[in-house]
Amino acid sequence: MNRRLFVASTISSALAACSPIGTALNNNEAFHTLLGVAQPLNHKLIGTRGLAKEYREADIMRDFPLTGFDPPSNSTYMDYLANGFSSYRLIVDGAVEHRQGFSLAQLQKMSQTTQITRHDCVEGWSAVGKWSGVRLSDLLDVVKPRSDARYVVFHCMDADEQGTPYYESLDMHQAAHPQALLALRLNDAPLDAKHGAPVRLKVPTQLGYKNAKWVNHIELVGSYANIAMGKGGYWEDEGYEWYAGI
Amino acid sequence: MRRKIYRYPFLLRLSHWFWVIAFAALVSSGLQIFNATPYLDASDQSNPAHRVLSIGSPADGVGTTTLFGKTFTTTGWLGWVDDGMGGHAPRAFAGWITIPSYQDLADGRRWHFFFAWLALLCWLGWLVSAAIKGSLKDLILRPSDLPKLWPMQAYYLKLRKEPPPHGIYNPLQKASYNVILFVIAPLVVLSGLALSPGIDAIAHPLTSFFGGRQFARLWHFTGMILLIGFFLIHTFQIATQGIINQLNSMITGWYRLREDDGVGP
């Protein structure tokens, strides 16, 4: 019986040691880097293939959930809200043949597509929404990416409490995906301020944090290493994976 | 002294201990990930009407757990727990059981994906080598084992003096290892893969098979509970069936046959 007690206490102390040992290893730079080897493997094996499932109208979650940042509170955005985004321009520049600014009206006049897809948050929740807008590839066709363009970076109008702006990036393959959408509408209404008005990115094959809200500047680059902390996105700079397909 | 046999080949021993490490890392990083959305729904989208489990904190200093609509106060255990930084916080699973101890979804995912690969490669490595070397046939449960399941259980319950004759593994060991290795482990891997929007885009039927993404999350969690259940029974068995011999054999490969090993190979 003493032996059983000994074994039971050994097992419970081993269990209780997992978290402190794990936390200490997590703070070890070399081990933390080693843990990261799974990411390129996931990216390579899963990648961006196939199409996200399309749902029926009846599946739409009308009160679409919100996490992440509050809408921008700067004066420019306040002006946009006041004038119905008539002064808003989506600037597309960087490694493109024709840099251009698009007004909301111009974007609305371009060919519109609609998808009813499920939004999967990195935190775990899911919600189906109906998104309409301009296919990212259609917009890129207008500005014509140069051959040195490797990534499409989405700069956003919102920022965290320290004033660090939100941004995200896709590679050219992900940007060419037929479901990669610059959404102007959610559930049959223009995007509201909380859901990223007037333009947000929708990539249903990747987790929510890729789906940048309040986009006002799209920059094509050869590398994102010199943008912000160099990881290709706001949450990537905070330690999340650049490949958000898992 | 009873006869010793070489029971566990090197790759089995190696993958066994890697599995122990990976399992501990996967459970504790998995609970870390669960904490980010501390509820499980039996549906595709998140849907409170199909909520099976939720852990929350309705007020400071109070933790509650709701299972199938029944709410229990679980302060200190679930919902309101140690935050991994010396204080207490509204958090589903406590800091002492998560990696990292404090709330950090990004690093929890980093751990989870690394050790998921390690566990999967161990499983594949063991399976392929066991199949090639022919030791897999000692483990596979056969129809002829089925009538021996109850006699073996009866022996464990001391209702029977002798265990039924069997090979390297007794019929109950075969049954439980087969269920774990070929049913529960694949269930956990596949339901985990079904959570990935990238994989869902490649293989809708996988996510649909589990009843949708949130349901897959519920399956993934349930699979973990079953694995923990196996782990507890397994360690209890090891602890009570000659712990030194058992541990020694999983390190060196050499196992000293015991009375309850029946006729032996």
Assembly category: heterodimer
Spans of chain A of at least 5 consecutive residues whose pLDDT stays below 50 are: none
Count the domains of chain B. 1
Any idea of the CATH topology of chain B?
Answer: Fumarate Reductase Cytochrome B subunit
Q: Describe it for me?
A:
- The complex is a heterodimer of chains A (246) and B (265).
- In chain A, 29% of the residues lie in helices and 26% in strands.
- Chain A has 246 residues and is an alpha+beta fold.
- Chain A has a single domain, classed as Sulfite Oxidase, Chain A, domain 2.
- In chain A, strands 2-1-10-5-6 form a 5-stranded mixed β-sheet. In chain A, strands 3, 4, 7, 8 and 9 form a 5-stranded antiparallel β-sheet that branches.
- The N and C termini of chain A lie far apart (47 Å).
- Chain B has 265 residues and is of the alpha+beta class.
- Chain B has one domain: Transmembrane di-heme cytochromes, Chain C (Fumarate Reductase Cytochrome B subunit).
- Chain B contains 9 helices and 8 strands.
- A 4-stranded antiparallel β-sheet of chain B has the order 2-3-4-5.
- In chain B, helix 1 runs antiparallel to helix 2 and helix 5 runs antiparallel to helix 8.
- Classes of the chains: A alpha+beta (246), B alpha+beta (265).
- The interface between A and B is large, with 55 and 51 residues.
Could you list some keywords that capture this structure?
heterodimer, A: 246 residues, alpha+beta, Sulfite Oxidase, Chain A, domain 2, five-stranded mixed beta sheet, five-stranded antiparallel beta sheet, B: 265 residues, Fumarate Reductase Cytochrome B subunit, four-stranded antiparallel beta sheet, 53% helix, globular
Task: Produce the secondary structure layout.
The complex is a heterodimer of chains A (246) and B (265).
Chain A: H1 2-26, H2 29-35, H3 38-46, H4 75-82, E1 89-94, E2 100-103, H5 104-109, E3 112-120, E4 126-135, H6 136-143, E5 151-159, E6 165-171, H7 172-175, E7 181-186, E8 189-190, E9 200-202, E10 215-221, H8 234-237
Parallel strand pairs in A: 1-10
Antiparallel strand pairs in A: 1-2, 3-4, 4-7, 5-6, 5-10, 7-8, 7-9
Chain B: E1 4-6, H1 10-36, E2 39-41, E3 51-59, E4 62-67, E5 70-73, E6 79-82, E7 88-91, H2 105-133, H3 136-139, H4 149-156, H5 171-193, H6 197-202, H7 204-209, H8 213-240, H9 243-252, E8 254-256
